[in-house]
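Record passed on here:
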Amino acid sequence: MENTQSKKRVAVCGGGVIGVCTAYFLAKKGAAVTLIEKSSVACAASGKSGGFLALDWCDDEAISSLARTSFNLHRSLSDELNGPENYGYRPLTTLSLTVTESQTTSTSTNAGSSSSILPSWVDGVITSPRTIGSPETTGQVHPKLFTKTLLNKAVNDYGVEVVIGKVERVGVEVEGGRVDSVVLEGGRVIESDSVVLALGPWSGKFEMLSSIFRVYGLKAHSIVVEPKEGASITPHALFLSYFPARGGKALDPEVHPRATGEVYVCGMSSEQEVPDNPEEISGDPDSIQVLKRVARTVSSHLGEGEAQVKAEQACFLPCTDDSIPVIGEIPGAKGCYVATGHGYWGILNGPATGAALAELVIDGHASIVDLGRFSPTRFVRRIKV
């Protein structure tokens, strides 16, 4: 019923999972959406994270309603987009394990636990296995494939335009303080009625945001291995307490088999300076070597000779000082919204964040999730005290 000229023009800045989900739901509600990405879609954490989903793991945290809503949205999006085939959506059994690294570098081939809950491919020295997630409460997607599948749907069915360019600034009217455009490096101006800044850890480098709150980058490492006997690797996500052979503090890596036949292993995170170019991010060699040891210690199927290392990588997770995402309208800039700071749960919470922001931008309020707890105004209030 709306013609093109009457549609609300929205510029979404950032081609990660949060930006893409927001663009998708905005366009589905009838907005004319331009998605602006500096490098390439899902080139950072949205392409290099685990893609783990959990219904109730955040129930004691501020993001509880966001997580539960988003977990269910992932399920409905999978039905809509044929998630099992297009981006590896599937339910999982999730286990917690204690793993002790051998003093030798050889792969262990005898199971360290006779527990019936352990899948046969987990054959390292394992103790204290327990189930912490069922197929009803935990699942996964391949994050890059999910993000790209959703964007393709948004482009092909709802007319989202994708522009590759670096956002230099947001244009704000002198009178009224309302946004009217996004200005790209090189001078291109994209006129907009509303703007969404979904810049992930690069939010901390954007003055309009960094003047209000801090977003820092947590550098997390991962490897992707492809075992020769991929069919034997069952859908069990593993969360480890890992004790290195040389002693010291236990590590907490994770092992996530994927429907593609690959196995994703991650961990070794620390706060570091976020580089300007996401394409320049590489893993620290020592951290990558630890993850290779983790893989072969957990399973003989994941060690050298039995699996090919497909990727050695790192990404930056966007984190806030209070560990709560920032989602809402920016104080002093009417029509300009932010969505960042999702930390480890960006892939999980992408759909609900995007759906809620679409409601906020188009309808003036969000009904799918109460965004009050996530508003950037909480930082302004703190400054005034």
